[in-house]
Amino acid sequence: MSKQEKQQLFKEALGNYPTGVTIVTAMTEEGTPVGLTVNSFASVSLDPLMILWSIDHRVSSKDTFIKGEKFAVHILGADQVELCKTFATPNVDRFSTCKWSTSEHNTPVIEGAFAVLQCKLHQAVEAGDHTILIGKVLDIDIERKDPMLYHRRNFGAIPAEFYTEIEKNK
Fold first, then answer.
1. How far is Cα 141 from Cα 114, in angstroms, rounded to an integer?
2. CA–CA dist 19, 96 (Å, integer)
3. Which of 97, 118, 122, 126 has the greatest number of C-beta atoms within 10 Å?
4. Domain enclosing residue 150, as ranges
5. Domain contains 7
């Protein structure tokens, strides 16, 4: 099997793995907010609280995240599909399309996310064409709303039937 065939199968397999969707933000040294849509996000540790996400080496803001001290992970709500798409689009003024503020940790925080985890960079690990960023969670804010789900290149809320099944099995 060729490298391209393996890559295509890899994309197909992982594209069928439902994930949540995040926007990760940080400030440049000059004080300009940067951010991008990320679905490579996972918890790492409860003690201390730690998460991870990965960034493609081709992303223009890569150095801000890798060399920066802090970043914020926004776990998106089901109602934030347009925001998700905007932060995945290159060469647009992403922050002009949303309400945001600078937090006490000097991270750009976007309003309306399901949850926001403000983090201090703990470690950056080179891994192929990406860098894995591990962050120690400094602060957590949660808004009680439905989180966004990404599956087969589609965005949306977790289906109500899923919650019905959970309740039946209690």
1. 8
2. 27
3. 118
4. 19-168
5. no
Q: What is the pTM of this model?
A: 0.89
Q: Name residue, tokens 């860098």.
A: 131
Sign of torsion over alpha carbons 143, 159, 151, 155: negative
Q: Flag whether 126 is in a domain.
A: yes
Confidence of residue 166 (pLDDT cuts 50, 70, 90): low
Task: Name the percent of the chain lying above pLDDT 70.
Answer: 95
- The number of folded domains in the chain is 1
**Residue pLDDT, tens place only, 17-67:** 788 899 999 999 999 999 999 989 999 999 999 999 999 999 999 999 999
